[in-house]
Design a protein that fits this description.
Elements (H helix, E strand, L loop, with lengths): L2 H19 L5 E6 L1 H13 L10 E5 L9 H19 L20 H13 L8 E5 L7 H18 L4 E8 L11 E5 L4 H12 L6 H17 L3 H17 L3 H17 L3 H14 L5 H15 L4 H17 L3 H14 L6 H15 L4 H6 L2 H11 L4 H15 L12
Parallel strand pairs: 1-4, 1-5, 2-3, 3-4
Length: 417
């Protein structure tokens, strides 16, 4: 069994224990660091694999959340599409239609909830099965509306006294998206990432005493030391890793190790050495490369954290210029967006507009798929506010965004300062 599979087995045991002890809860929320929630996500996906031998049903959805009055309908339509395929290929499949209700509700959660009750009734083999609806929207238009939708789902479960249909959610244990919900049970999934990395290295690097294996091992050892705040040991391992990377002419590995070293210096309060490490990175990194862009962005974030706004702007400006030169337009947009956001004040309003308009201009060069993944909607939505009474600019921007993203292109942003 490989290391990742081993962690999934551990999560499976924890999940079984959590579910069995909280049968009355209509919702489960998995909390953890990103790598931990990613593993939980992988565990849920494994419930849909061909070799899954359980009786429970897992429905997984990453669709965008575009409003509390349409999300349930979106889920139902996807299920119904699959159901219609079954209906055409099997005989005696019971009909499955949307159930409309007279009760006035705040969201359309019922459009997803009641069909699942009907599904269990129509198929005898699902009678004793639990249905887990795992939602992880790739984009959320309005967090408050999502929270309202989730809470109404939970209330529907309680009112119907249904204990075998559950909503499942996963998010960071500190930077939470959803507010607290008394009807949901939250649990913390924990994975020793450093042990996992070391096990993975041992599992994949069979060739002992090779330069590459030694380099990876030093990185893993440094990560482990860092997690336990043993900064001196971490620095020694990283310096060894840098030396090994130089020997094998592994430039990207060398830069990555230098970056880890800069973060170690920062954590240990050695700002001067952190600055020196960054300057070494800029002298060694391949010019006009995505890695150089990333390092300037990292540096910008670092100096911004130490209240050096002008220096941060210079770093992001440098990153944006390189990104445009080599055609990394999405990265350029992100850099200009950050600079613009840093100037979201009454006194620097015009500077924000200038940089956000640069984002719009660059966005025209993006392919449709990459444009969808960029922060262009946020930029345009804030620009619509900053344009205030300039109806001509507002109308032109609105029309351009509708062409890219459709009529409902706007996202919620903070009100102007």
């Amino acid at each position: 069994m490989n290391p990742v599979d081993l962690e999934l087995v551990k999560i499976k045991r924890q999940w079984k224990n959590v579910v069995s002890k909280n049968e009355e809860k209509p919702m489960f929320i998995c909390l953890g660091e990103k790598h931990e929630t990613d593993l939980f996500d992988g565990f849920i996906k494994s419930r849909m694999s061909d070799d899954y031998d359980g009786d429970d049903v897992y429905l997984i959805h990453y669709q965008e959340f575009n409003g509390s009055d349409s999300f349930g309908q979106l889920l139902w339509e996807e299920w119904k599409e699959f159901y219609d395929v079954l209906e055409k290929s099997h005989e005696n499949i019971p009909g499955w239609e949307m159930r409309y209700i007279d009760e006035k509700l705040d969201t359309d959660a019922y459009k997803a909830f009641y069909p699942l009750i009907d599904l269990k009734k129509k198929f005898p083999h699902l009678k004793d099965s639990k249905i887990y609806l795992y939602i992880a929207p790739v984009r959320i238009s309005n967090v408050e509306e999502l929270s309202l939708w989730v809470k109404e789902w939970c209330k529907l479960c309680k009112k119907a006294e249904i204990n075998d249909i559950k909503l499942v959610w996963a998010e960071h244990h500190e930077y939470k998206t959803l507010p607290s919900n008394s009807l949901a049970h939250s649990f913390r999934v924990e994975v020793d990432i450093h042990q996992l990395m070391q096990n993975t290295a041992a599992n994949t690097n069979r060739k002992k005493n090779s330069t590459d294996t030694d380099f990876q091992q030093q990185i893993l050892i440094a990560s482990n030391h860092l997690s336990k705040q043993r900064y001196k040991e971490a620095k020694n391992s990283l310096k060894t890793a840098i030396k090994l990377a130089k020997e094998q002419k592994n430039k990207e590995g060398e830069i990555s190790a230098y970056f880890m070293l800069s973060q170690t210096y920062i954590a240990d309060g050695e700002k001067g050495k952190a600055e020196q490490a960054f300057q070494t990175i800029f002298s060694e990194v391949e010019p006009n490369s995505p890695l150089e862009i990333q390092m300037y962005m990292n540096y910008g974030s670092y100096v911004l954290g130490h209240s050096k706004k002008r220096k941060a702007e210079e770093a992001f400006e440098k990153a944006a210029n390189i990104a445009q030169q080599i055609g990394e337009y999405a990265m350029a947009i992100e850099c200009y967006r950050i600079i613009g956001t840093l100037n979201d004040t009454v006194l620097t309003r015009n500077k924000l507009i200038e940089y956000f308009e640069k984002c719009i201009e660059i966005g025209r060069q993006l392919e449709s798929e990459k444009r969808d993944q960029s922060s262009l909607r946020f930029v345009a939505s804030l620009l619509m506010i900053k344009y205030e009474g300039d109806q001509e600019k507002k109308s032109a921007l609105d029309n351009e965004m509708k062409k890219y993203f459709g009529d409902d292109w706007k996202v919620e942003v903070e009100q102007p300062k």
